[in-house]
Amino acid sequence: MTARIDRLVTSGTFSLDGGTWDVDNNVWIVGDDHEAVVIDAAHDADAIAEAVGDRRLRAIICTHAHNDHIDAAPALADRTGAAIWLHPDDLPLWKMTHPDRLPDHWLADGQVIEAAGTDLTVLHTPGHAPGAVCLYDAGLGTVFTGDTLFQGGPGATGRSYSHFPTIVASIRERLLTLPPDTVVRTGHGDTTTIGAEAPHLEEWIARGH
Predict the structure, then answer these.
(1) Which of 45, 94, 149, 187 has the fewest CB atoms nearer than 10 Å to its CB?
(2) DSSP 8-state code for residue 55
(3) pTM for this structure?
(4) Closest CA to 42 of 58, 55, 30, 29
């Protein structure tokens, strides 16, 4: 059975470096009629569990550990029995939100997570956060970029644990090398494609943020 991709938008806050902002997050649910994975369990474990329905939740994959992308992960894991996956370089950020609960498994560059008819390849794309990852599925023609790449440019790099030259290198070397028609499903806002964003790389570098 071919996997499908559902998007759930949840609302909450993002906090870092003493500031707090209201945000809407994309929660991506990838799967078939029987099982699924969740990419970024943001804000509302009940709403995410309802969207998963009676399917078996195989994994909760974190694109990075900013609180707005992981705040509902432990509650969702406890409710469903799904394991939480995170890149180890983001453990310091994770501990800011969940000091008493570790992720269940560590993501590694090049790893393939197979579930529900999908093959999600982990691409380590630091810059927005040290352990930021994107998840690429060639069969679905899509990449889930978290906060690494958006419609219109890279994710923010003005706060702790982020670095603009690093995110640019990640986008250039790991994402813009994907097929141009690859759909980019982001952590916030609208989807785009690799082909739509690739021509603007030098503009982003000139802008410097």
Answers:
(1) 45
(2) S
(3) 0.97
(4) 29
